[in-house]
Hints:
In chain A, 52% of the residues lie in helices and 11% in strands. Chain A is an alpha/beta fold. A 6-stranded parallel β-sheet of chain A has the order 1-10-7-4-2-3, with helices on both faces.
Amino acid sequence: MEQQSATFPANVKKAIADSQLQWAMTETGPRFIEKRAKARANLPEFDTLRDQARDIKDHVLAHLDLYLERYEEKVASSGGQVHWAETAEEARAAILGICKRLDARLATKGKSMISEEIGLNHALEEAGVTPVETDLGEYLIQLRGEPPSHIIAPAVHLTRDQIEADFRKAHTHLDPNRDLTEIPTLVEEARQVLRQKYLDADVGITGANFLIAETGTSIIVTNEGNGDLTQTLPKAHIVIASIEKIVPTLEDATTILRVLARSATGQDFSNYTTFSTGPRRPEDPDGPLEYHVVILDNGRSNVLGTEFQDMLRCIRCGACLNHCPVYQAVGGHAYGWVYPGPIGSVVTPALIGIEKAKHLPNASTFCGRCEEVCPMRIPLPRLLRHWREKEFEKHLTPGAVRSGLSVWAYFAKRPKLYQFGTGIAARLLKLMGGRKGRLSSLPLAQGWTKYRDMPVPEGKTFQALWKERRHG
Amino acid sequence: MRLMELTRPRVGLFVTCLVDLFRPSVGFATVKLLEEAGCIVEVPENQTCCGQPAFNSGDRKDTADIARAVIRTFSAFDYVVAPSGSCAGMIKAHYPELFAAGSADRAAADALAEKTYELVSFLVRVMKQEKVAARFQGTVTYHDSCSGLRELGVKAEPRKLLRTVEGLEIVELEDAEVCCGFGGTFCVKYPDISNVMVAKKTKKIAATKADLLLAGDMGCLMNMAGKLKREGSALKVRHVAEILAGDTTTPPIAEAE
Lengths: 472, 257
């Protein structure tokens, strides 16, 4: 997928000017928040589960090699095959290799962020395999040729009117005068269109929410059941997942599942939680003949053992996006790559480089709401700050900011000089805006006064007044 | 009398750079509240800023230098109190992170963190204050600034004391816990996003129909007041300390009378 994180400020301007996007965001944003809050309130042990979930993943990350090897053995013993991919290119090659061998023409797909990360759809199309997204949200954005704007609700930025227009454009075999004003009608139409694709598909590709080391099982959670049809009907099921999706046992997976849906949509559990272990066995009535798991690193192992390791606990629930006032202001596309929101601003620099993604960790007020709701207790503000430190160390911070900061720091370390400076500033600003108590324009602070007035000081600093009061 | 002097806690006032420069009246209101609560208040001359601009820009070295100076300046006090959740949060939650575990700097940072408080939570939690002797006729609403709320858990304390102000009525602000979009240098680095955030905030503030908006942090207050004034709102904005101290002689923030 094309990376546009470097042009974040321009992306933001576009997003803020997009009235449909702004409307869609204000409609859906608050609902996610309410639902999570209710789900949390209904489960007294929620915070204890968060601690357990964090500990499970921390343990896995400390012994990742061990659990990945055990997982591979178990997949092999159930008749499946693991393909290791160090890069996105290797992952694509592994999948295309399977498709080619099976002479695949049509691939149905369950929702997968890794698929987006490695740009799989584009690669499949180039190789003559038609990818069909079966998750409704993914299907909607595939019709538009857009990347997802949210980790679990990829089409959250779209309005009903936009979807209706897209359906009329894409589903030309249907009656052009049909009524599509109601959302259930739209869902039904997508279901009818997709039904035949499941039957025609040669391979089914899904992501994974968990890979279980003790059994060699992959788990997906969906609300539409599309994942089940995607993975059981075609000849081959290909799972794509990144290395940190591993958990030791089924019990560990169920512990994390208890916080996943609650944090994501506010459901106790997603409608479907599907376990896949190997291909169809002789006694099975259905299921794929081949079962493949492509496990992607793509830079994640570089994060192990660093101050950024905590990001690998993420289970992609999207709670940090839903609660982030910056995400809610600009939507997911402004972030310019696959993963938006606070977790995206932490993960993206690790995967595409801080040089290309340096705006993302800076576009945060450190309000801390993301950390407050993260089911895996990822200290997101701290990780964002660590990226700013990397940026500063590498001298990527813009020159004006850097020199401004060093002048400020020079004064901040010299109290006498500092107070001399603030004394002048207090008097000067007071003179400039005295009659109204505020300024509507201030040189060197245009970023502030473009949108709001600048309150002016009272005239003397506290330190000066305190001295007067003490010494008369 | 002598014994009473000995038992009164010695509080070092961390003025904060924004109160020092923009709103000294908040500093005096803070001193008044602390003295009325039975503290001996001192204001060390050698203070400037807590170091957040450097810390949040990734400049660890300057941050550590500034933190060492603050630690040196304030370590002798029984308590350090700031009329800000953001600056108190910096000292309490982040100074220790700046130094390696086991180092002398770390021990000193931990010791300072231990005795540093945001003003209103200090009055309630440490000085066990139940009420204030202030009057204000009108309806107020309260914005919970992020650092005070999430780093220090300040939520009930300002409401508890405000409820004891004679004549004052509190009306809760919808989304009071959502960031106002200030974020220090964020608001000038990403003005467009900051503006969307503060515009959402002022819309909720206006919906309360309150006469006065209060919060515990000058940064947020200047941001919200600046936006309200730009929008032509008549709503007044003050730091919570001013109301608790009963001192409203200074014009509201961003106003001249």
